[in-house]
Predict the 3D structure of the following.
Amino acid sequence: MAENKITLSKSDRKAVCLRHQFLQGSWNYERMQNGGWCFSMIPAIKKLYPNKEDQVAALKRHLEFYNTHPYVSAPVIGVTLALEEERANGAPVDDVAIQGVKVGMMGPLAGVGDPVFWFTLRPILGALGASMALSGNIVGPLLFFILWNVIRVAFLWYTQEFGYKVGSSIANDLSGGLMGKVTEGASILGMFIIGSLVERWVSISFTPVVSQITQSEGAYIDWANLPAGAEGVKLALTQYSSIGATALDQVKTTTLQGNLDQLIPGLAAVCLTLLVCQLLKKKVSPIVIILALFAVGIIGRLVGFM
Amino acid sequence: MNPITILLIVIVALLAGMEGVLDEFQFHQPLVACTLIGLVSGHLTEGIILGGSLQMIALGWANVGAAIAPDAALASVASAILMVKGLDGTTDPTNAINTAIALAIPLSVAGLFLTMICRTLATGIAHIMDASAENGDFAAIERWQVIAILMQGVRIAIPAACLCFIPSEAVTSALNAMPTWLSGGMAVGGGMVASVGYAMVINMMATKETWPFFALGFVLAALSELTLIALGVIGISLALIYLGLKDMAKQGGGSAGSGDPLGDILNDYE
């Protein structure tokens, strides 16, 4: 009887989407995001199951273990809404099927969400905002905050709707080509940007002086014998622009850092980063590495090496 | 600090603490949290600069699965408050910002322990929810979800409030008493620490296929004319070109074009 079919209206689905933002609120070591998941499902459960017995069963069903990336959880909740709707209308969808879809989708989707959001989008938007913020520009934080939240809310709502519309077939869709391509594309972009961030923002500078050479006449600006007034400034600037920074002093100082930069700028930074990668792979805690780097920094400064 | 400033700082801290677990609006990210604390305490510019510097260190910090990253929320909130204290005293801005950056790292470790305690306490809340579900008590489940979120907010709000009540003179004199080898060494260490966040990202995404893109990004970044946006455009283009070529190779390679080499070989035998 089609006229008696209970359906979730758009406003019901919006209520679920709104609550879904608080998915991780009661994150716990036992069943992880279960409380937040159940909290998100409540508007739908109230609508679909009028009698109390069904409500109790539904609440218990949605307090089972659940954990995934908080954003890509949106298509999972969309699919679950579609399944619960079928069930409320008498379709033979049992608890195992619903839990199976949740568990089946949460693993692969977390594998998409982590690289795309945490390791590509946030570092890129964060670095963009931070590079502006370093000069005290308010646009930096605003840009990061607004762009992130626009993308996030749009993603949460549209993928939940997508999940709701395609119902249980979504699980098959996602294992197909598109999601794989998104992940791969994000990894390429992410690796590229991280490569450039390592060059720009990991700073190691070695201070030891390799050599000091007294330069021949003409290779430096002879500050004592410059003509007076604007004429002198002009001559000094002309010499500076033609010779470069070494023109400033009669003694040309070469540091270890200068020599390294002539090979590839940032060589030490990339070596350090790769070393840290290896340490992390060997299950050394990031906290230990961070504290060790500070120790190295302090010792390096004390002995005048860095 | 006057009472209104303290109240606003505590509200910002509450938001940052809640976001530390929710990871939605990003109030816990240094770029946002430090800016907000700078805003409510009248040191907006310094707050933005501190936020930008800490953000660069915290770029790769993320909660993956059940593993929890160093806590950006306590790091950004507490170090921003300490910076404001220093600025209200007699410390000069550069010194105050640099010291705040150095303090952020130990604070992020302290915050990590606090969130682990909260997440353990939340296990108890999960059991209360079970009992409420047994009675079909919707309101109780909703109430406990809100309590759990607030608990994570209070985790940051309480330390923030405590810091506000330490007199500025104490903070300033502690900051000024720091020997130069320590603050200088911390600055050197801070320059290197960013590599840890990046290494976490690399370990997540590195494959034989993606390493060349890392190398390209690294060498191109040496050209200082290229802004981050320009580098982003290059990166997106490279990704699109690579995926497009790979698709073409797949279709051209097999006679059936199914993208399944083994299937194609089997088909050829038929």
